[in-house]
Amino acid sequence: MSALKISIVTNAKEETAAFIDGIFTDGMEVLLQTEDEMRGSITDINVLVPGHISVDADLIKSGSNLKMIHCGTGYNNVDLEACNSNGTYVAVTPNVAAQSVAELVFSCFLALAKKITNFDAMMKSGNWKTTDFIGTPELKGKTLGIVGYGNIGKATARIARGFSMNLIAHDPHIEITDDDVRSVSLDELLKESDFVTLHVLLTPETKGMMSTAQFEMMKETAIIANACRGPVVDEAAITEALAARKIGGACLDVYEKEPLDANSKLRELDNVILTPHIAYCADEALAARFQFFSDNCQKLIDGDTPNMAVNGDDVNNS
């Protein structure tokens, strides 16, 4: 049997090659390709790891030998119906990046709330504070509102407990059973929270769920973090809310269109911390992610259904 041909779409080939060394087995031929290279060889590829690029119906139909598309946490960039018609599994990666994402959220919360970047810039420019009244809060006793209480939401709650924060959460799809987490409506969460963190999948229901009306419910001092999917937040609305100081600040790792436009007004604001979609990128999380990819490739070689295949029944019954 010929080796399973796997395309990992990346512009960082050398770094990726070093990182995955020893993870994939001899029965797997790993190709590190740019998007253009992948599209030019799609007819020969068996497994596609697309990252954040769009995998549309035309590309899937061209993948006559495509057995699996392996995503991260979400698969909103993949045409699922086309995969079903093509007999191609779409698999997602389970709880490997929850800690990484939660840690970045809190790092950004702290950096923004404590004005760390401002004071760092002040010191490096040769200045010094002129007063002890710097206007920064403690996290202890503040309320963290978690929107989406899955693996990442729970990881965020664990960190918040270390800061002695009050915890509330909203998730219409999960029963919240932790004794110290109060289940509330989204409106109630936005009104009560000092910090809000979003951890939902991108669906028609969640697209644009945070817009002008929602920002107007929030406290003027509240800080919101989005490390799930960009379109969950109305970018124009949050830009306006930040510029008008209707909310205290934002920590954004994802955007409606990526990469973020070089001329985005978000880049001009002093009450936002911007990171380039790297919340899932801790070394440990990436290693676990690639290992899961490899394990699922072995499933294909063995003739088994991949783990976490969101359309396993549709492909198997076709």
Walk me through the structure.
The chain has helices spanning 13-19, 35-40, 57-62, 80-86, 98-113, 116-124, 151-162, 186-192, 212-217, 235-243, 283-301, 312-316, and strands spanning 4-9, 28-33, 47-49, 68-70, 89-91, 143-147, 166-170, 181-183, 195-198, 223-226, 249-252, 272-274. With 318 residues, the protein is an alpha/beta fold. The protein folds into 2 domains: 4-94 and 283-316, Rossmann fold, CATH 3.40.50.720; 98-274, NAD(P)-binding Rossmann-like Domain (Rossmann fold), CATH 3.40.50. Helix 5 crosses helix 7. The mean pLDDT is 96.
Quick overview of this protein structure:
The protein has 12 helices and 12 strands. By secondary structure, it is of the alpha/beta class.
Tell me the CATH architecture of the largest domain. Answer: 3-Layer(aba) Sandwich
Tally of distinct domains: 2
Give the terminus-to-terminus CA distance: 24 Å
Low-pLDDT sequence parts? none
Sheet with most strands: strand arrangement: 8-7-6-9-10-11-12
CATH class of the largest domain: Alpha Beta
CATH fold field value of the largest domain: Rossmann fold
Helix content: 25-40%
Shape: globular
Broad structural category: alpha/beta
How many extended strands? 12
Tell me the strand percentage band. 15-25%
Mean pLDDT rating: 96
Q: Can you count the helices?
A: 12
Largest sheet: 7 strands, parallel
Fourth-level CATH superfamily of the largest domain: NAD(P)-binding Rossmann-like Domain
